[in-house]
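thought: fold this chain, then report.
action: predict
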Amino acid sequence: MASSKRVLIAEDSSVIQNLARKILEFQNYDITAVKNGEQVMQILDKEDFSILLLDINMPVMDGMECVRQVRALSDQTKANIPVVAITGNARNYTEEEFKAAGFNDVLVKPLNFDRLVEVVNHLTDK
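observation:
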């Protein structure tokens, strides 16, 4: 299955990270998981992914700063990758702020795993 789609999950909660991994692996996605936005930028420099799932509140570099840095990459393929915000405090930001930062969609915690699969499928099947 060489053509499976690759998902990079940045989430500092091991519980959410592991649940999302299991759900998406069941959907035949290849999952890589990291704990913060700085690790996202390091791995994105070396590898290609179909989609990024970024927690908003992470140590070192949060999701808002990370998506801005992804969108500013000189590699246009990587700069235009679909990026989904995962947040437990969506009320801290408006939908417009998420869009302005560069997110394609937002998932609110507690995660609805049906919605997670739906969003990931939609954004990777374009």
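thought: worth noting. Helices lie at 14-26, 37-46, 63-71, 76-79, 95-101, 113-124.
final: tokens above.
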